[in-house]
Input
Amino acid sequence: MNGFLLIDKPSGISSSSCVYSLRKLLNKKKIGHCGTLDPLATGVLPICIGEATKFSNYVSDQTKEYRSTIKFGIETDTGDIFGKEISRK
Output
């Protein structure tokens, strides 16, 4: 199998974890991601499989768009969205 997959990566897992799971699922060693999403981020994660890994630079070099939601005035015990709220201003 050779080609590209677009994965809708959920929050809470790393890009590398996605690749590791796909390697096991597809029984393929030559798999990689084109760019990295933060483990807390959700979004499209392009995956190259087999011979398509030779073209990963073309995908990585493209323009990207990021969207975020920010809540001001909330502090959590972990400093991220998964923590318990400890302060609100």
About this structure: Strands lie at 3-9, 31-33, 43-49, 74-76, 85-88. The chain has a mean pLDDT of 90. The radius of gyration is 16 Å.
